Amino acid sequence: xxxxxxxxxxxxxxxxxxxxxxxxxxxxxxxxxxxxxxxxxxxxxxxxxxxxxxxxxxxxxxxxxxxxxxxxxxxxxxxxxxxxxxxxxxxxxxxxxxxxxxxxxxxxxxxxxxxxxxxxxxxxxxx
Length: 127
Fold this sequence. Notes:
3-stranded antiparallel β-sheet
């Protein structure tokens, strides 16, 4: 499932806010994705968001529609504008806590910064 498909689901409030990690190094993000798939996550549950070249547009509305709370969306948007990439993991409503915990551990293990903690520590300071 692509980000566009997830956007439609998020707008209908049928998914839980994705577990999101901010990565300064794309290769670390790729390793996190590999570990997530080895941990049982399906490809359609994992999204990678980044900009290949140039400065991205303001993506706060897009991130909010994917299910991120406003403070996390602002933080992630600022990080994207500085060249970071996001790994977003959708957890099914049927087993959110167990899969969310695994996703959080994997993202942290590979160097991902979790926006909820980073946004509360510094609302305006990107990575």
